[in-house]
Amino acid sequence: MADGSSFYVTTPIFYVNDVPHIGHAYTEVATDVLARWHRQAGDDTWMLTGTDEHGQKILRTATANGVTPQEWADRLVSSAWLPLLQTVNIANDDFIRTTEPRHEENVQRFLQKLYDDGHIYTGEYEGHYCVGCEEYKQDADLVPGTGEYAGQEVCAIHSKPVELLQEKNYFFRMSAFTQRLLTLYEERPDFVQPESARNEVVSFVRQGLDDLSISRSTFDWGVKVPWDDSHVVYVWFDALLNYITAVGYGVDEEEFARRWPAHHIVGKDILRFHAVIWPAMLMAAGLDVPRGVFGHGWLLVGGEKMSKSKLTGIMPEHITDTFGSDAFRYYFLSAISFGSDGSFSWEDLSARYHAELANGFGNLASRIITMIERYCDGSVPSVAVLTDADAAISALEKTVTDASWQAINRCAIHEAIAAVWELVNALNGYLTTEQPWMLAKNPENRARLETVLAVAYHGLGTLAVLLSPILPTAAAKLWSALGAAGLVQEQRIDRAYQWSVGTRVAQLAGLFPRIEAVE
Ligand code: MSP
Q1: Which residues of the sequence carry a binding annotation for Zn(2+) (predicted)?
Q2: What is the average pLDDT value for the chain, to the nearest integer?
Q3: Which of 73, 235, 263, 419 could make an SS bond with 55 (beta carbons 3.0 to 4.6 A apart)?
């Protein structure tokens, strides 16, 4: 990539029954970093996020709060879900709500096409439904309840009892796509990532797929089935379609051709919907399947998936109010290898903030800028004779630029950050060995002093470019302190080491101030 090709990336759309916690913000931030990185590499990038507003879960919450589901959704979107994007600094290109006409009308269009083409039939279903998951559960998905639910079978994800439902529904002949899906996983081994997620999906589909119940008639909060308005579309069938209704499916062929197919970033709990049901739906409609589905891990608290319903939810602003949005983004994406679960603790966050952001990077930046101000009157110095140590820094700038971009192309965000951090550490080591403050004491060392500061200055600019998808606020501040032209997010990240140096530095306020006490 990085040749102007299309990079369309999506987050899951979030249920509006409750406010966001840091698990939701994690999905947003990871997707945003991928989007910002690709955008800065010159790809034709589009990032979509949004909200999932239909279904029983939202209906029940709204009813319990004495408002209509639409009022409830409007309230939560404006008071919680849109503000989340500011809280963690998301640069999304679009935000879709499943109650918007652009979505609802094209869900109906899609469904009608499947119906006309014989992929849908009427049937009867009885099963255990988890409203938390909005999904019928197999016996294997249930576990014995504990506490108030002891003696009952509960959903393994929500730890709450399931409900026995029996309904006459419309069904999607998903079973007919079992073999085509297996061929897809075989031919495109990176369709589902990481490897562990792929294995889980493949062994699930190998057992053979059932048909999928795609309508409900016991409540009416959803998109009406176009040929039978006594039914509404099953909320997952409706929700998955957001990925195409948002980019012109059914109405704007040009836009659709430009964007689709997408890369989907999802939590591992909703992998099957994206890697099994969704491609089967697309195959039935004769559309391209996604470019890939990446299932990330969970943020754990006390060893369990953090969730509001289990009262372990931590709000993103609890972290950003103290540490800032850059630190939030950096911490979760560097400390957890993307694809694995990770535990959150305030101690770990605070320790990494101080060691890596405040001391490692922030201090490095302010030391270099301050020395150029002090020893060169703020004029950006130029290099004279290069030593091996100087050349090693320049070589590393190129190495980490390439390595981080390659890691991003594999969605290995933590590896990309680790590669960039090699340069942070190398520059710190370089200053320790070259000791420009000692060189400054003797005018005979003038040429060497300027070379050292010029090399350090150049490395710092490369860092600003490479870190701008992760630390957009700090990178922008650093970029103006470097006196570089334009905006840092406009610099080509796949050629970060080729940035054009400025002529004068400007004062740099502390990028990551020390934080004394964290509760
Ligand atoms: N509405 C569906 C998705 C429909 S996509 C067509 C949904 N919504 S959700 O609000 O429950 O979850 C949205 C995302 O947040 C999922 O990717 C989920 O994995 C993620 N997370 C929720 N809790 C999480 C953690 N504790 N840790 C990490 N991610 C978590 O599912």
Answers
A1: 130, 133, 155, 158
A2: 95
A3: 235
Which amino acid is present at 48? L
pLDDT tens digits, 424-450: 999 999 999 999 999 999 999 999 999
Tens of pLDDT along 406-419?
999 999 999 999 99
**153-155/142-144 β-pairing:** antiparallel
The model carries a pTM of 0.95
Rounded to the nearest whole angstrom, what is the distance from the C-alpha of residue 497 to the centroid of ligand 1?
37
CA of 309 to the centre of ligand 1 (A): 13
Q: Quick check: 325 and 352 in contact, CB under 8 A?
A: no
Ligand 1 contact via 110 beta carbon (within 6 Å): no
Cα–Cα nearest to 214, from 103, 155, 135, 104: 135
Give the number of the atom of ligand 1 that is nearest the alpha carbon of residue 268.
Answer: 19
CA of 300 to the centre of ligand 1 (A): 13
Residue 326 region by backbone torsions, left for phi larger than 0, else alpha for psi between -120 and 50, else beta: alpha
Multiple choice CATH, 356-498, 1.10.287.130, 3.40.309.10, 1.10.730.10, 3.40.50.360: 1.10.730.10
